[in-house]
Every structure is written in structure tokens, then in C-alpha cells.
Write a structure and sequence with these properties.
mainly alpha, 74% helix
């Protein structure tokens, strides 16, 4: 990794002053770029990305589905869809609201750190409640609280890409973060399968990892309070910041829509892959968790290659769109294979194609989104609105998926994944329509 001289990157003075200055220009166009960040800065940001995604993915990929199956084995598909869907609805509001508030927080500890710390505490408490819940209703309520904690964490971390990392390094950083996300998914499945006898540890382990990563983050990544507002804004003004005119910010709206479409397809895959292995392939829960981890472990090589290769090439070539086209194609191909998969081998092939798509898309899409942020001074607002594009599918997919699964024999995974493949191709169309990025 290339590094700048110590005085040229934001982390250089992190150990010398509590609130070092940050690059926080009013917008991407015509403003000076943030200074280059160091290898240590990138490593720590990647590490906390891993911790945050492990905290999100371990419940979503394994823990939540496993707990619901224990409480309601007969109606697990509908109950899982209901719980995930309700949580996603809260997330749609909580995430952008937290992002707007992080832009305005004037704590002496910084404007982002307090939100991340609070989110960690909330996730620990809610995860404990889910692990001990006796009914689906209790799980649903605790999951809503857990989602609010996640919203605070992710809304505090996402703006770093836009307001502290220069355009020339965003593809690289996005690549490493994409790998960290996929690695978190593998660890989530592997550890989740190993902790089926200890539901409490299943939910608290990822939070513990995030706590360790956060300690490094506080030491390495600078933060400062938001500037004092000249005019006090009412709460209604904050809520108005959660929406924007897609005609005025056309490119940002297209990037948002592209992420939404691809994530809908991937959410169909990730939410129901455990039940797919149980119902179609006929595996036991523990064995299914092991297969998820094994395939995911192999997929790390694929994901790493596509994420890092795509991110670095997109920086060097100064092009983003062609990589989004390829990611959409891989996703559609993998979901199509998944639709007809009769055994673990076919499932593995489909998963590797989907992981390649996720790795490539995750690195380049994040860089492209940072390129088209309308106002870098409000990066928390815009990046949180963008993150909603990844959360709305969690509300939409659980509503649509059971209806699709009920067609035919009642477990129509073929129709489910073919629908997902068709939706995922829309990401290529939206990328093609973006004008401000090549």
C-alpha cells in the first residue's frame, strides 16, 4: 500500500491532539481532495468494517434463522420473513436519521464515535434478549432494538469513505472493505455453526470482536465535533434531510437504485440459503452451517481476488461502470445456477459466482457512490441514505419471498432465485445511466 508522509494524512496526528482537523469540504466538485491516508488507517478501517459486518451478518445469516427455527420450527419461513421485514422497516428510518445526526453531533469525543459506541452497547443488550427469547414476538422486538444499534454503528462508519479518503484511494479501500465483509460472512457461518449449543455466545461473540476493533479505530481514525450551527434547526428539519430530489441529484439516485436492485437479488439468496440447504438438499442445521462456512471459506479467495482486483483496477483506469456490469452478470449467473441446484456441489458453484459478484460490486460501488456524493460536508447524511438501499431489500425480500416460495409445491426455490437473478441485472442498467462517472 502506498502511504503519504506523516503530515499529509489524517491519522498522522491522531495520537497528539484530541480533535485533529478533517477534510470536510462542501462538496466533491471543485473542492480539494482529502489528503491521502496511511496503510495503518486503511488497516484499522478495514478491521472495524469486519467487526461491524460480523455483528450484522452473524445474526442475519445464521443466528436469527437458527433461533426462530428453535422457537417456531413449523412456521420458520414465514416467521423469519416477518421478523427480518419488520426490522428492515425500522432500519429504513433509523439509518439515515442516525447519519444526519452524526453530521450534527458536537460531542468533545467527535461526531461519529459516540454513535458507534452507543450502537455497540445496544447490540449487546438486544443480542442477549434474542438469545434468551422464548417466542417469536420477543425475538421480533429484540431484533428491532438490535437493528437500531446497527444503524448507529454503520451510520458512524460509512461517512469515513467520503469525508476522509481521497478519490484516488477509494477503490482500494472499498476493495479491502469488500473482502472484510465477505470474510465476516464466512466467520459468521462457521462460528454460528460451532455455537449452536450456546445461543448467548452466538450473539455476543461478534459484538466482542467489534469492541476490540473499535478500540483500534478510536486510536487511529481522527474525529472532531460538528461545527456549531448558526441557526438552531427543529427536529422536523432533521427529518427533511432524509429525503432528496432524484431529479436534482440524478447520478446519486441511480447509484442508490442500482445498489437496491442488486441487494434485493442477494437478499433472496442470503436470507433463505440456510433453509435451502435444510429443505432442498436435506442437511441437518449443524451440517448446513458447516457447509455454509466451508463454501464461504473457499469463496474468500474468489471474493478477495475480485474485490481487490476490481477496486485497484477501477482506481487505475478511473472507470467504475464496466466493473458494475460484470458484477451484475456474475450475480445473475450465480442466482440462476442456484435456482436449479440439486446438491451441495451445485450450491457451491452458485455461491462462488454470487460471492464474486458481491466482492466486485462492493468495492467499486462504494467508490462510485463516494464519487457522486452531492455534498461531502454532509457525508453522513448521504452515505446513510445510500446505505438504506442495502437495507430496504431486507424489508422487501421477506415479504415477496414467502409468496414466491408458496407457488408450486410450497418450497419453490427455483422461482425464488430466478426472480432474484432478473432483479439483480437491473444494477447494470442503472450504472449505464450514470453520467458523472465513467
Amino acid at each position: 500500500m502506498s502511504t503519504a508522509p506523516p503530515h499529509q494524512h489524517p491519522a498522522a496526528n491522531a495520537g497528539h491532539e484530541e480533535n485533529p482537523p478533517l477534510a470536510d469540504g462542501p462538496g466533491p466538485a471543485g473542492d480539494s481532495e482529502p489528503p491521502r491516508v496511511s496503510a495503518w488507517f486503511i488497516f484499522v478501517y478495514t478491521l472495524i468494517t469486519f467487526g461491524a459486518n460480523l455483528t450484522m451478518l452473524m445474526p442475519m445469516l445464521f443466528g436469527l434463522a437458527y433461533q426462530i427455527q428453535q422457537v417456531d420450527p413449523g412456521g420458520k419461513e414465514s416467521s423469519l420473513g416477518l421478523v427480518v421485514g419488520i426490522g428492515a422497516l425500522f432500519n429504513i428510518v433509523a439509518t439515515p436519521l442516525a447519519g444526519v445526526l452524526t453530521d450534527r453531533t458536537r460531542s468533545r469525543w467527535g461526531r461519529r464515535r459516540p454513535w458507534a459506541a452507543s450502537g455497540i452497547v445496544i447490540c449487546a443488550a438486544a443480542g442477549t434478549a434474542i438469545a434468551l427469547a422464548p417466542t417469536v414476538v420477543v425475538i421480533a422486538v429484540a431484533w428491532i432494538v438490535y437493528i437500531i444499534g446497527l444503524a448507529a454503528i454503520l451510520s458512524a462508519l460509512a461517512p469515513v469513505m467520503a469525508d476522509q479518503i481521497p478519490e484516488s484511494q477509494r477503490g482500494k479501500v472499498g476493495a479491502f472493505c469488500g473482502v472484510a465483509t465477505q470474510l465476516a460472512g464466512v466467520v459468521a457461518s462457521l462460528v454460528g455453526a460451532a455455537l449452536t449449543d450456546s445461543p448467548l455466545l452466538m450473539f455476543l461473540f461478534p459484538v466482542g470482536v467489534l469492541v476490540i476493533a473499535f478500540c483500534f479505530y478510536v486510536a487511529a481514525v481522527p474525529d472532531r465535533p460538528a461545527a456549531s450551527a448558526r441557526v438552531h434547526e427543529p427536529l422536523s428539519a432533521v427529518f427533511k434531510q432524509l429525503v432528496f430530489d432524484p431529479r436534482e441529484h440524478r447520478d446519486f439516485a441511480l447509484v442508490w437504485l442500482g445498489r437496491f436492485l442488486l441487494q434485493v437479488g442477494l437478499t433472496f439468496f442470503s436470507t433463505y440459503q440456510l433453509y435451502f440447504l435444510l429443505d432442498r438438499i436435506g442437511l441437518a442445521p449443524e451440517e448446513a452451517g458447516q457447509k455454509l462456512a466451508l463454501v464461504g471459506g473457499i469463496g474468500i479467495v474468489v471474493t478477495t481476488g475480485f474485490a481487490i482486483g476490481g477496486g485497484l483496477l477501477s482506481d487505475r483506469l478511473r472507470r467504475r461502470k464496466s466493473f458494475i456490469y460484470a458484477a451484475a452478470a456474475f450475480a445473475a449467473a450465480g442466482l440462476t445456477v442456484m435456482a436449479f441446484a440439486p446438491d451441495v456441489l451445485s450450491y457451491a458453484v452458485a455461491t462462488l459466482l454470487i460471492l464474486a459478484a458481491a466482492g466486485l460490486f462492493g468495492s467499486v460501488d462504494l467508490a462510485m457512490a463516494s464519487d457522486v456524493v452531492p455534498d461531502r460536508a454532509e457525508a453522513g447524511r448521504w452515505m446513510s441514505i445510500l446505505n438504506v438501499a442495502g437495507y430496504v431489500p431486507s424489508a422487501v425480500a421477506p415479504v415477496l419471498a414467502p409468496l414466491i416460495l408458496m407457488t408450486g409445491d410450497g418450497q419453490n426455490y427455483t422461482a425464488l432465485y430466478l426472480t432474484a437473478a432478473l432483479i439483480a441485472t437491473g444494477a447494470a442498467i442503472t450504472a449505464w445511466r450514470v453520467r458523472g462517472v465513467r
